[in-house]
Write a structure and sequence with these properties.
- By secondary structure, this protein is an alpha/beta fold.
- Among the domains are: 38 residues, no CATH class; 71 residues, no CATH class.
- Helices cover 38% and strands 23% of the residues.
- The protein has a six-stranded mixed β-sheet, with helices on both faces. The protein has a four-stranded antiparallel β-sheet with strand order 2-1-4-5, covered by helices on one side.
- α3 crosses α4.
- The longest helix has 26 residues.
- It is globular.
- The termini are far apart.
- Bound molecules: adenosine-5'-triphosphate and magnesium ion.
- The site of adenosine-5'-triphosphate has 13 residues, from β2 and α1.
- Adenosine-5'-triphosphate (ATP) binds next to β2 and α1.
- Keywords: ATP-binding, Nucleotide-binding, Transport.
- One of its GO terms (molecular function) is ATP binding.
- Belongs to the ABC transporter superfamily.
- It holds the Pfam family ABC_tran.
Length: 261
């Protein structure tokens, strides 16, 4: 068996905001993500999903445990670990092509080549003729595709996405999921995607990691044993849906009970 792309060992994270009580976001969280694997994080609000992505990306420090990528400890951000934030995060003052080319300057790609690469990738996400537009001239779905293109331009080995499609309408969301599965296959990257949508989890994941309420721990890991594309009419699909609904209901109840306490 090959080496994991990402190894999380006993991760803990306590936020200590100035002048306020510390918040334990994650506790003893361990997980391996394999090369080329599609992992979905599912869990109640506030259980530390975004926090964990920031730490894997190297943008935040763990307060316990270790994170390794390909056997090397993660200490800082790297082009090999791309993160697409909860809100599409394009620079509004740059054109779409310049947004995509932006990270390549950090990688040391020569200027002329950057634009070629950017336009190539934009074509691959169906935005070939949008390169000269500004983000606010695009629809929400197009902006998310542009954000994907920018992340993919860096050729990351691990692509993390924090509720990337939450703001989109149902039809656009389904299209974006198809599109994501396609670029996932083409890129060979591992993907870690956070969602609140049970259907999205079942449609996309090789494995779904269900979090407990805060402090987030691994409640259970469910492999989705269905061929893709995954027809929602399949009785097995419904069985997964029931299983996740039950797992989440427990944790959402716990999260609410804690908030009221
Ligand atoms: N920068 C920060 N400073 C202090 N506390 C933080 C910070 N970021 C997150 N937290 C706290 O850590 C906990 C986990 O937050 P996080 O954003 O990771 O949850 P989440 O699972 O992504 O939630 P959601 O599903 O609502 O996006 C929350 O209690 C949150 O208030
Ligand atoms: Mg979040």
């Amino acid at each position: 068996m090959s080496r994991p792309a990402i190894t999380l060992k006993h991760i803990g994270k306590t936020w200590t905001p100035e002048g306020r009580a510390p918040v334990e976001a994650l506790r003893d969280f361990s997980l391996d993500v394999m090369p080329g694997e599609f992992v979905v994080f599912l869990g109640p609000s506030g259980c530390g999903k975004s926090t964990l992505l920031y730490m894997i990306a190297g943008l935040e420090e763990v307060t316990g445990g270790t994170i390794h990528q390909d056997g090397h400890e993660v200490k800082e951000p790297s082009a090999e670990r791309g993160l697409i934030f909860q809100e599409a995060s394009l620079f509004p003052w740059l054109t779409i092509a310049d947004n995509v080319a932006f990270g390549l300057s950090i990688r040391g790609t020569p200027k002329l080549k950057r634009r070629d690469i950017a336009l190539d990738i934009l074509r691959s996400v169906g935005l070939g003729d949008m390169g000269d537009k500004k983000p606010d001239e695009l629809s929400g779905g197009m902006r998310q595709r542009a954000a994907c293109a920018r992340a993919l331009a860096m050729r990351p080995k691990v692509l993390m996405m924090d509720e990337p499609f939450a703001a989109l309408d149902v039809q656009t969301r389904a299209k974006m999921q198809d599109f994501l599965l396609q670029i996932w296959r083409d890129s060979g990257a591992s993907i870690i995607l956070v969602t609140h949508s049970i259907d999205e989890a079942i449609s996309l994941a090789d494995r779904v990691v269900v979090f407990t309420a805060r402090p987030g721990r691994v409640k259970t890991i469910v492999p989705i044993d269905l061929p893709r594309p995954r027809p929602s009419r399949d009785p097995r699909y419904h069985a997964y849906r029931d299983q996740f609904a039950e797992l989440l209901a427990d944790e959402v109840d716990r999260a609410f009970a804690e908030q009221e306490a």
